[in-house]
Design a protein that fits this description.
The complex is a heterotrimer of chains A (286), B (256) and C (286).
Chain A (H helix, E strand, L loop, with lengths): L1 H30 L6 H19 L2 H24 L7 H23 L14 E4 L2 E4 H23 L1 H11 L1 H6 L4 H27 L8 H13 L5 H21 L6 H15 L9
Chain B lengths: L3 E12 L2 E12 L3 E5 L6 H9 L9 E4 L2 E2 L5 H6 L2 E4 L11 H9 L7 H5 L5 H13 L15 H13 L5 E5 L7 H16 L3 E5 L3 H7 L2 E6 L2 E6 L1 H6 L1 H16 L1
Parallel strand pairs in B: 3-8, 3-9, 6-7, 7-8
Antiparallel strand pairs in B: 1-2, 1-4, 4-5, 9-10
Helix pairs in contact in B: 3-5, 3-6, 5-6
Chain C lengths: L2 H26 L8 H16 L4 H25 L2 H21 L18 H25 L1 H11 L1 H6 L4 H27 L9 H14 L4 H17 L7 H15 L3 H19 L1
Classes of the chains: A mainly alpha (286), B alpha/beta (256), C mainly alpha (286).
């Protein structure tokens, strides 16, 4: 029973990582930059979602609206922050992104206060009995949403013109450009989708803890980087699997070796071991 | 006279499921000018990369340099033993000037050990040597300029000068004429012949058949990872297998 | 000079040694490290524990240096396996691993850290002079390396390691040397910090510290010795200068990082260089 419960815990955590990390890996595939400020957009999603919910009382309204707004912010981040420095060495965009993330966290703190905000009448808090294990409705919704969204996205990526263009550009930007694909449009679209997904993850996480706070992007900011590296940087399928793997490794690790290493250290120890054996990540591009 | 400098035996290289080189073998005689030709994708560049040591070989591949087995030796050690290679796509150190690009290569003795390199400052003799080499390839007037922004012709020559600076006994050239116009290509080929006449053994890959026939003493033809012919240039070009390989490819290309 | 100025001066000098140590790895040899605080921490813990065990200061500092350098050598080995962004995340992982291990070890004080580290016995001004001399020595050494053939080979490795190898440079060995020297110096800075603060906790050596020191290097101008010194001065003193608006100091910090990378990616050193170039051109035109 413990195994099953841990596995389920890991999958829940992993599906949260997955919706955050997908956007990050898309950005990496397109631009070869580690977009740390993605975690800032995740937190922004939490704030916007909570504010809309508290105003309207409707989660059905809050989620898509917050996702769309944060998606637009993501596009602006690309245009204003990354586009001008793309041909610089990679650390330039990385540090710029870190600076942006710090500034975002500080803005949240200054505007909404250091202690964060809570939901009025938080929704989806009921417990559901699943094979004898009690999990919260919000957790179930998060898993369901991430499976549905990623499923729909992968369907679109396989079966629509723009989807195919996106995949081609992520895999080989130069080749795609030579086939007449408008790389700029693809980049905007990717930033929109990736940021919108991060915003949804932010809303789910804030529902689980009934809290949005300025520092909520902290853990995803580095954990998601570890995941996309594990998945082979820029490889979407690899990233999804890596998210679940890290979720499960953490769930089991904290129980069995938690007295040796804390949660973050377990994830990174796993990552380092994998990289030493497979330097290109679990699922290398080539 | 026919002293064998490099001996390549049963070279097998695979990338994924594709066999890039299949049991290729040949000798390079000291002092000669050997060219490797073949259609695109024949495995020519892979062959050079295998000799310099940046490609993984499968057994029973073996490479001997002056009778010493170098199959398991690292790249920089091979370079120190007298192998050197230029790249088809030139990659100068972008943060340096033209001269510095050659000086760093000329200082390969000084950089051999990091710790003694830390206490070694004098660059005078290396700069002198680099200037001489730049003179040989006709670049002495751009020596002090930064590398970025130089035209391809200059960079191709720089690549050769930089490679010569490591004092090679055997020079591997990967398409040194590619991208140059007719006049530049001829000038470059003449420079290479001059280098060869100064005693350096040369193995060159090149698509410019006119220049290849003009300068090489011997040809090897690769196709689809196999060696299909070798010998003196005129005889090789009459070989029916060689004609078939080139014609066949052209037909396929024309069809596509 | 008041006590406040003395301790500010001491921390500036410690940070200069710390930033110079990262500059050795990232600036000179081109290997990005996002986990440099781990080695700072190794030095600090090692020196702190030995000091408490009754060892004299020089021995404790030296041991911290050696121990950090040895750890760095092991991490440097990973730079032979993984490159660029993969290396960045691996080193980040090392930082989390270090924290995770230290937090769970009772003999290292766990979360509470190491307190009541014995005094250096030099007096505050004496210690400031001592640290200042060490900082000058480190700067001089960096300068020497930059001018030597070793620095020249580092340039080549940082520029294009494949080509450096084909020109007969033992790339792996140079990377290991850079890691060993850089991390040993970080260990020295950490040891000095332990004697300065006399109380260390795991969070002093977290990911934020790694980012801070990377920022000092990048804002100053990666690879430039004078630039790194200026960057360190600026980023160490700036939070102090902005104390009167202390609530906004992190926001300003984040925006500064972002702004420098976005508008002057070569850092302040690059900015000054292009400014001087501009003046010279003006003069030449006249």
């Amino acid at each position: 029973m413990l195994y099953l419960e841990l596995l389920l815990q890991g999958l829940i955590q992993g599906s949260m990582y997955a919706i955050i990390a997908v956007g990050l890996t898309l950005v990496y595939g397109l631009l070869r930059i580690l977009h740390v400020a993605h975690a800032g957009l995740f937190a922004l999603g939490g704030y916007v979602g909570l504010l809309i919910f508290n105003e309207t009382g409707s989660l059905i309204l809050a989620m898509p609206l917050a996702a769309a707004l944060v998606g637009l912010v993501g596009m602006a981040v690309y245009r204003l922050c990354y586009q001008p420095i793309l041909d610089r060495p990679p650390y330039v965009a990385l540090i710029a992104s870190i600076g942006l993330f710090i500034a975002m966290e500080e803005l949240f703190r200054l505007i909404f206060g250091p202690y964060g905000l809570t939901y009025k009448n938080p929704p989806l808090q009921a417990y559901v009995n699943l094979f004898g294990i009690h999990i919260r409705a919000a957790e179930l919704c998060m898993v369901g949403a991430s499976i549905t969204l990623l499923g729909v996205l992968s369907y679109l990526a396989q079966n629509t013109r723009i989807g195919v263009a996106c995949r081609a550009t992520v895999e080989d930007p130069e080749m795609a450009a030579s086939f007449g694909i408008d790389a700029i449009k693809v980049r905007y679209l990717n930033f929109f989708i990736g940021s919108a997904l991060a915003a949804l993850a932010g809303i789910f996480v804030s529902l689980l803890s009934n809290l949005v706070e300025p520092t909520m992007g902290g853990v995803p900011s580095y954990k998601a980087l570890a995941i996309i590296v594990l998945g082979g940087l820029g490889n979407v399928k690899g990233t999804l699997i890596a998210s679940l793997v890290i979720g499960i490794v953490e769930a089991f690790g904290t129980i069995y070796i938690g007295n040796l290493l804390d949660r973050d250290a377990i994830a990174f120890a796993f990552l380092i071991i994998v990289l030493m054996i497979r330097p290109q990540g679990l699922f290398a591009e080539k | 006279m026919n002293e064998i400098l490099l001996e390549v035996r049963n070279i097998i290289v695979r990338f994924g499921g594709i066999t890039a080189l299949n049991n290729v073998y040949f000798d390079v005689i000291k002092g000669e000018f050997l060219s490797i030709i073949g259609p695109n994708g024949a495995g020519k560049t892979t062959m050079l990369r295998a000799i310099i040591g940046v490609v993984k070989l499968l057994s029973p591949s073996r490479i001997f340099l002056a009778d010493r087995d170098i199959t398991d030796i690292t790249v920089h050690e091979r370079v120190r033993m007298g192998l050197a290679m230029t790249h088809q796509i030139v990659r100068p150190f972008k943060s340096m000037t033209v001269l510095e690009n050659v000086v760093i290569a000329a200082g390969h003795k000084r950089t051999g050990n990091p710790f003694s390199a830390m206490f070694s400052f004098d660059r005078k003799s290396e700069i002198e040597k680099a200037m001489n080499l730049l003179d040989t390839v006709g670049l002495s007037d751009v020596a002090e300029q930064p590398v970025t922004g130089q035209p391809l012709g200059v960079l191709k020559r720089l690549e050769v000068a930089r490679t010569l600076a490591v004092n090679p006994g055997l020079l591997l050239l990967d398409e040194p004429l590619a991208g140059l116009n007719h006049v530049e290509a001829k000038k470059m080929a003449d420079t290479i012949v001059k280098i060869n006449q100064n005693g350096l053994t040369i193995v060159m890959i090149e698509h410019n058949l006119a220049e290849v026939l003009r300068v090489s003493q011997r040809l090897i033809v690769l196709d689809n990872g196999f060696k299909i012919a070798s010998g003196n240039p005129d005889a090789v070009l009459c070989d029916s297998k060689v004609r078939a390989a080139y014609m066949g490819k052209e037909k396929i290309n024309a069809a596509a | 000079m008041g006590i406040y100025e003395i301790s500010l001066g001491t921390i500036v000098c410690i940070n200069i040694i710390f930033a110079m140590s990262l500059n050795m790895i990232t600036g000179f040899c081109g290997q990005i490290s996002l986990g440099h605080a781990a080695f700072y921490g190794v030095g600090a813990y090692c020196a702190g524990m030995l000091a408490k065990a009754g060892f004299p200061m020089y021995a404790a500092l030296f041991a911290g240096m050696i121990f950090a350098g040895m750890t760095g050598l092991v991490v440097g080995l990973s730079s032979l396996r993984v490159r660029e962004d993969f290396l960045a995340i691996t080193t980040m992982g090392v930082n989390f691993l270090f924290l995770g291990i230290v937090r769970q070890q009772d003999f290292l004080g766990g979360e509470l850290g190491v307190s009541s580290i014995p005094s250096h016995g030099m007096g505050k001004i004496g210690f400031l002079v001592f640290v200042m001399i060490l900082a000058c020595l480190v700067i001089a050494w960096s300068h020497m390396i930059k001018r030597s053939w070793m620095g020249f080979a580092f340039d080549a490795v940082a520029d294009d390691e494949d080509i450096a190898q084909v020109l007969g440079i033992d790339v792996g060995r140079y990377k290991l040397v850079a890691f060993a020297i850089g991390t040993a110096l970080a260990g020295l800075a950490g040891g000095l910090y332990a004697y300065f603060a006399r109380f260390i906790v795991p969070d002093d050596f977290g990911f934020i510290t790694s980012i801070t020191v990377l920022s000092m290097v990048a804002v100053g101008g990666i690879g430039s010795i004078a630039g790194v010194v200026i960057g360190t001065l600026l980023l160490t003193l700036m939070p102090e200068m902005f104390r009167f608006i202390s609530d906004y100091k992190l926001l300003i910090y984040g925006l500064l990082l972002f702004g420098v990378m976005r508008f002057a990616p070569e850092g302040l050193a690059g900015l000054i260089k292009s400014f001087v170039g501009f003046i010279c051109k003006k003069r030449a035109a006249l």
